[in-house]
Amino acid sequence: MPRAVARQYLQDFLYGFPLFSPKKSKGYLLSCESIRVSDPWSLLNYTIRVSHDSATNQPLNKGQQKYLLELLEQAEYFYKTAETAPIKSQPMLYYYSFMNLVKIVINLHSYQGKTKRHVHGISDSISATTKLSNAEITLWTSSGGEISNSESLISALNDPRPAYVAGARGRASSIKVKVIDLLRDCVGINRTYSEIYRKKENFLLLHDYMFYSQQNKLCFKAVVEGCDDVIMAALTARGYNIDKIDALTYIWNVETSVRTTPSPTVVERHSISKKMRDLGLWSYTDGEEYKLYISPIATRMSSPSIIYHAMFFFGSITRYHPDLFDSILTAKEYWLVSEFLKTQPQQFLYYMLSYINGTEVLFSKQV
């Protein structure tokens, strides 16, 4: 007799799966699968007021709320000021907004308040000879009781840990990252990047998702748009499990083990989400949904981490080297950076809102 096929249990895309899956439920914040908002700052204000201290699992006390609401006020002010500022002033303002948002994320993840000093955890070496093509930033780990905002953001978002190189004589570990690679790996401007540098677009859109459990396994499948045998080989070399169904159809498969097949736990959902993001999973929202992408070459860093670190570099030019802004960029690169500043701050803001609340937060489109 033919062997019986194990029953499949289709799973809902709840608890922020797959981008924002937390280790424990955040349903007390928002219980819906996704929500559309026109004022993200008011939502974050609400979230802070009802959030729990991760250490005690009790609501934040008045002092903790006050500190986080002060950070929120600064983040909102810098963001809104940046929106109407000249392009050469925008990066510094957006970065300071992002930095305050990251402090909120860090403290909601593990409340520290003012007990430790926050540092950027990023440095640059901008000079008169710097060009976008050779510009680098250095990411640093925390040391000496200080909190590296860079390292803490990467950790909070469950990004793969960068291959930091240990520092000498007790100094923090670090890793160098090329700024042009960060811009290449911003999904929202990848097409502009490809046009400017005459490169092939390096992100592949996923569609027709299927999320199910079967015989003690939790499985995710999706069609990889634009894939071919050459790209399949490159993806496979990077660790993706790709099946070729026919000449035009390629499927990405991910699976993890679960104890209870019909009803996987929040932790089990987080486990497969983490596996997907460790392999490389990027996103872009058009306001309707979060579109998912994989890539054979992109840096294994989540979309908001990429945006945050790139904004630091351009903010450093604005803060310390405003006279070099034009010399660092060619005319085409000025267009690329303009697109970055026009589109990516909103992507960062809504991704962070979604992460904090453990569910998709989408922006309302004006009618």
Number of helical runs?
Answer: 11
How many strand segments? 14
Which class of secondary structure composition applies to the elements? alpha+beta
Terminal-residue CA separation: 60 Å
Spans with pLDDT under 50 lasting ≥5 residues? none
Percentage of residues in strands = 15-25%
Mean pLDDT: 91
Radius of gyration, CA atoms, in whole angstroms: 21 Å
Helix content: 40-55%
Q: What about the largest sheet?
A: 7 strands, antiparallel
List SSEs in N-to-C order: EEHHHEEEEHEHHEEHEEHEEHHHE
Overall spatial form? globular
What do you see in this structure?
The structure is a single chain. With 367 residues, the chain is of the alpha+beta class. 40% of the residues lie in helices and 19% in strands. The chain is built from 11 helices and 14 strands. The chain has helices spanning 40-50, 62-83, 90-109, 149-156, 179-184, 190-197, 229-237, 266-280, 303-320, 325-328, 331-357; strands spanning 8-10, 34-37, 118-119, 122-124, 136-140, 147-148, 174-178, 204-214, 217-224, 241-246, 249-257, 282-285, 290-294, 360-363. The strands form 4 sheets. Strands 1, 8, 9, 10, 11, 12 and 13 form a 7-stranded antiparallel β-sheet that branches. It has a 3-stranded antiparallel β-sheet with strand order 4-5-7. The chain is globular, with a radius of gyration of 21 Å. The N and C termini lie far apart (60 Å).
